[in-house]
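Spend some time on this chain, tokens included, and walk me through the fold:

. . .
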Amino acid sequence: MRLREMITENPMRALAIAAALLVAGVAITFASRSRSNAPAGGGGGRMLFSVDDGKTWFADDASKIPPFEKDGKRAVLAHVYRCADGTEFVNHLERFTPEAKQALERANAPDPTGKGRPDRSAVQGAYMAGREVKRPGDAKWVNAANIRESSQVTAVKCPRGTTEPVRVVP
């Protein structure tokens, strides 16, 4: 079956395959960067995190895997955006399940022999099945593998809906 026919006949399957490939690419990039001690995120090795459900945020080391402890509170990744009027807001928060975090930490652990490679399948699995997102104020975390629900959570729009927001990078 040709690709165009497959997409036309089953667009949800095509979307799921495209999302899985995107997640796999991100996971592989993360694993290779962390192995070379390069930062996992942008902004000079720093990313934005929140300990108060997105009311405030702070910059910290991008190699930290959320959630992590910060001043006795649980910190999660904060996806912060700025509207044309200067308003900054947390669009959504992100964390890993305990199992996924453990798999990522094992993959990032230094190999004493210097010969080991990260377990790419574990990293990929952590990103595909162990990542959770939610909007500030929501009680429920949504598994990022649930494309329909997670895409609604991660869709970015200014609070007043006036402009296209821009990602804030520390």
